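User: Here's a chain of 402 residues. Predict its fold as tokens.
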Amino acid sequence: MNRNILSLYQIAQKPSRKIIGLMSGTSMDGLDVALCEISGAGETTEVKLLHFDTVNYSEEVKIEIRKVFAKQTIDFQHLALLNEWIGVLHANMILECLKCWNVPTYEVDLIASHGQTVMHAPKILHQQEKFPNATLQIGDGDHIAVKTGIITISDFRQKHLAAGGEGAPLAVYGDYFIFRKEGENRIMLNMGGIANFTYLPITMNLEDIFVTDVGTGNTLIDAFMRLYFLDKTFDKDAEIAQGGTVNQSLLKALKSNDFFQKPFPKTTGPELFNVEYVRKSQVESCTQKITVNDLLATLTRFSAETIAEAVDFVIKNTLHPCENFNIYMSGGGMHNPLLVDWLKELLPCNFLEINDLGISGDAKEAVLFAILANETVSGGDSDFSSCRGIPSVSMGKISFPS
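Assistant: Prediction complete.
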């Protein structure tokens, strides 16, 4: 037997595994690195977050990624070079984290690498009948495995596509395994660049689970902060937005895209929601001259209303109206006080943070990819086939160190 296969087999048999989960989202602020200890699999999964850090991307890294990110026309050589470069970059970041945590590489069983998304193209967006749903994450897993000496599982979204999904959101699997609770209706709301949520029913019945993207989280806010303020990448504490007033004409134009009328579940990305999208809406609403404060206030309200309307639709069509529910927030949007205040105003529910469930809201997505890697080697028995838009699959490509 190949020694790498034997090593993987032995890892799968262990009572618990130490797995590093990696996540770099559409905000491109850095790499989330979560070292987890995971036991069990599927519905018996238990997770302990041992260490977590976000390693910030340098401005050079952000510039290089933006050359290909969500663009229709790119330099393909640059894309190929980036695939390898990001893999090595992420590997070095992992090694630096392990050094800081005083954890030797031989104690880590697996790395679960999401990679860096550069294009998300579900059919709902590309609208080309002969082509299937597509998505592309770069940061080659083989480079990570060889550089770190740790078996690496990567490229999780491709199996989701191959099994009939849109490649996102993938949070539902980990959400169900570790956050479901009998007797409580839970909405696991993640507000990254794009906002998505998982509904975990009070009954814990798989057929009642629901997951979808809903539209923008922080992506438009961050894009215009970079555009207007060279030294700022996000609206810290909503300082800029809180100094403005929501422009209702622009808000109406932003919400007029037919994406919001398409049935759930669905996915989206900055390929649709970008600076050009906002500029077009400004032209349509004759609001090109509004102040930057008013623009940021309107974009924040846009995220709040589209999130709230999607959650409200699912609640009214899934739950009995008399049942209470709790929303657990994660992602960068949970740190935006204006966005959170507006969500509380729009939705009659209890708002909490993932931190209240024992997992850092900033680390959640990286932890969920560690759980997916655990399923790849030790799970695979959970059947999600009764859930709408949630294929039952074992995800990820396995890369050996040598």
